[in-house]
Structure formats: C-alpha cells, structure tokens
C-alpha cells in the first residue's frame, strides 16, 4: 500500500475516532483516583454526568453542587468545562484519553501535574457521609479501653440524630437535649461536631459505617474513646 494512502487512511480513522469521543462521554462517571504531583487526593463519592446537549452536572455522593456545560476539541483532544453556578476554572482544559468504561484527564495546576481517572457507572454513588444520616442508638461507649456504658448511658436511651441540614441532636443525656452542627471531611472518613455552647465545644471523630452499624473513634479531652451505634427507625422515648 502506498505511503500516501496509508497516511490518508490513518488520518481519516483518527478523525472518526475523535468524532466519536463526545458520544463516549455521555453518561455518569465516578472519580476513581486523583493524583496531584506525587500525592493521592481522591475526593469521596465524586462524580460528573455528561448530557448529549453538552450540559453537565457534578457532585459528591447524593449532593449535586455544580452545573454547567462541556466542550470537546477534536483537534487538540482537550475537554473543557464551564460552570454556570460556580467560579471560573483558571487552569484550562484537560487532555483526554477515553476507553469504553474508563477515561483519564490530565493538566497542570499551580506547577503540579494533575491526573484524574474516572470510571463509567449507571448510578450516582453514595458517599460515606451520606450513610451517616438518620437516627443512631448508642449501644456501647469505651473510654481508654474500659466499657463505661453503664455510667455514660445508664438508661440505655441515649441516641444521636444526624439530619440532612447538618444539624445533630443527642437525646436522653444528663444535660437533656444537646444540639450542634456537624461537618464531614471531603477526603477521609472524619466528622467534626460543633456543640451549641459558650464557648463552642468541638469534637473530631473518625467514623465507619457498616450497614446499620456506626463506630466513632476519637480522642476527647485527652482520652481515647469509642462509641458504637445501631441505626434505628424511631426515636427512643
């Protein structure tokens, strides 16, 4: 086959390959890995959804926080985003490599190479913070490896209510009802409780949710503590 013809066929194949990329993008993608320089900084439950009309939405878990449009440049194989409800992306488009169910974005941000790997999915993923919502009955409290449940919750009625609006309530304590706000970390399973008090009391816990079980681990007032909860569908009286 003549060299000129081979080059022409390759060029045509490349054009058709790039033209098919927008159709490959359509759908929901979840972030598998984010590498910034030599550091792994993967957000929990991060996803982005591409529509055929070149609109896109993104969020973390069950929380959608951005909307906008997307554009793919066939000549440069670059993917650009425009957020219509947020700040301007100052770092420019990503170079894009896409397969059937996986794609990789690359660009430079503040002098560091950024690489994002995404996997195609049929559903928006549930992030660990989403699993915290609900009513949790306190079953066991351990302080410095000693079970203090009988004194910490003598009536076995203490429970924790984590609401969607980031308000928490603790009921049936010696002080009565305790309230505050809670904040979850975006990159690790950590939750911070800020109590409505003067001055505000702040506690930081590592959490793990396994089906209907919640375990909190933290150092509170200089002591290692573990609290074990069970999810329930009612408010204990």
Kindly describe this structure.
The protein has 237 residues and is mainly beta. It is 11% helix and 54% strand. A hairpin with a 2-residue loop joins strand 17 and strand 18.
CATH superfamily of the largest domain: Calycin beta-barrel core domain
Distance between the ends: 84 Å
What structural class do the secondary elements suggest?
Answer: mainly beta
The biggest beta sheet is recorded as: 8 strands, antiparallel, barrel
| Uncertain stretches of 5 or more adjacent residues | 5-19
* CATH 2nd-level architecture of the largest domain: Beta Barrel
**Number of DSSP strands?**
18
Q: Helical content, roughly?
A: 10-25%
Beta fraction:
over 45%
Give the radius of gyration: 24 Å
What is the element string, with H for helices and E for strands? HEEEEEEEEEEEHEEEEEEE
Question: Could you list some keywords that capture this structure?
Answer:
single chain; 237 residues; mainly beta; Lipocalin; 2 domains; eight-stranded antiparallel β-barrel; 18 strands
């Amino acid at each position: 086959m003549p060299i000129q013809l081979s080059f022409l066929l390759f060029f045509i194949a490349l054009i058709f390959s790039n033209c098919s990329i927008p159709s490959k993008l359509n759908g929901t993608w979840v972030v598998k890995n984010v590498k910034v320089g030599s550091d792994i900084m993967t957000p929990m439950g991060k996803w982005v959804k591409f529509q055929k009309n070149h609109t896109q939405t993104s969020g973390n878990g069950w929380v959608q926080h951005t909307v906008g449009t997307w554009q793919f440049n066939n000549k440069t194989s670059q993917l650009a985003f425009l957020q219509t409800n947020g700040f301007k992306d100052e770092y420019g488009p990503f170079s894009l490599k896409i397969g059937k169910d996986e794609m990789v974005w690359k660009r430079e941000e503040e002098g560091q190479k950024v690489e994002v790997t995404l996997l195609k999915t049929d559903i928006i993923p549930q992030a660990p913070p989403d699993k915290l919502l609900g009513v949790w009955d306190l079953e066991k409290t351990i302080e410095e490896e000693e079970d203090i449940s009988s004194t910490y919750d003598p009536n076995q009625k203490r429970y924790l209510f984590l609401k969607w609006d980031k308000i928490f309530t603790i009921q049936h304590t010696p002080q009565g009802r305790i309230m505050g706000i809670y904040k979850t970390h975006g990159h690790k399973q950590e939750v911070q409780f800020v109590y409505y008090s003067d001055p505000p009391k702040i506690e930081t816990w590592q959490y793990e949710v396994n089906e209907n079980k919640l375990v909190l681990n933290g150092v509170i007032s200089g002591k290692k503590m573990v609290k074990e909860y069970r999810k329930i569908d009612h408010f204990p009286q």
